[in-house]
Amino acid sequence: MKTFKQFYEADQHPRAFHGQTYGDNDGQYKVEEIDAYAKEHYPDVIAVPVADLEHQLKPTKYETHDEVPGSDEFAARAKMATFEHPVLVVRYRDDKSGHELWIADGSHRVWKAKQAGMKTIDAYVIPSDELRNLPTKLPPWDPDKEWEDDEDV
Length: 153
Prior knowledge:
- With 153 residues, this protein is an alpha+beta fold.
- The protein has one domain (20-138): Conserved hypothetical protein from pyrococcus furiosus pfu- 392566-001, ParB domain, CATH 3.90.1530.
- The chain has helices at 4-10, 31-41, 72-80, 107-115, and strands at residues 21-24, 27-30, 46-49, 87-91, 101-105, 120-127, 137-138.
- The strands form two sheets. It has a four-stranded mixed sheet.
- Helix 3 packs across helix 4.
- The radius of gyration is 15 Å and the shape is globular.
C-alpha cells in the first residue's frame, strides 16, 4: 500500500481526483466533473466562511483511514494540503440538516484552514440543482453497502 505522500508525488496531474465522488440523496457525481463545471459556469472564487463548512469536519461511521476528521492520518494529510486550489462547495437552498454549504472536495484544506484560525477559504460554489447538468450521474451512495478500499486509485 502506498503512503499518501507516495500517492501524491506520483500524481502526474496537479488536480487529478483519482475517481473521487461526491454524493447526495439524488446520486453520486465525479469530483473532476464538478470541478470542470464549476470553473466553466461559476469561475468566480468566493471567500466562504470556514465556520459554514466545519459541520463536515465531524467524524462519521462512513469515513475510513485518512478521511476520518481528527484522526492522525487526516491531520497528516491536511498538513500537506495547500491553498493553491479553491475547495469545491455545493449550495443547497432547502437542506433539511440546517446546513446550506457542503464540501465536494477540500475537507483537508478546510480542516487546515480551521486549525490555522483562518476565517474564510477560497471556494468554487455551485448550486445543488446544477449537479444534474454533469455528464455522469452514478446511483446514490448506499451507506449499508460494503465499502471497497481501492489501493490503485
